[in-house]
Predict the 3D structure of the following.
Amino acid sequence: MLAYAENVEELIVDGAGLDDAMGPLASLEWDESILYRFPSLKTVELANLELDIIPSSTPPSAHVPINHLILTNVDLASGSFLCQMGASIVSLSICAKSAYEYDEQVRLALENCGLQALTYQVCSSGKPERSFLDADANMTFALRSLTLEGYVDSTFLADLTLRCTELEELRITGRSVAVTALEWTDFIRGYSAPASLKRLGLPGGTNMPPYAKWSVEDTNEIHTVAASQGIQLVN
């Protein structure tokens, strides 16, 4: 029995030390009673687990708010974990093996949870069948900060501009970005970038494939255009 559970604000469950390194992931069964045991819970971090979610008996809005959800190498065996966590997740961080595992979960969180900050790292990132930003017509998201390591192309940037009208910071990393330096320059000029964008981090190269770094001339042009638009380039 955990003493003073009502005062716990951060819950971390890491299955790395609970299973054989060559064996299956440790398993965790999650249901709504966990939230009621920790009424002050603000951050939940789960890692190296197979997660089995028991369906909730009450609407998500009745749950205790969780501000920050962190998932690293978590396999969802069943259920829709992100939506069950409640309708007030402010920050979501995910490190997944593939986009296939989590794109739909991320889309549901954007549509239902008022998500403002998303960090999404996909280790194996081929082109997904559908972008996690591809939502129903006329739907926009409250997202203000997006850090993404995964597949990005011009179609994704178009979805970003259409759905993330309040986005202030965008950071794209990794070597699975199929956007050329010229396309980034046009994006920054305002041909498609959200008008709210203030900070931008770019990968420094394009995977056509293969991956190739941008030339000094291309990099300088991006910096010049960003400065003219009042957009700060960040690492």
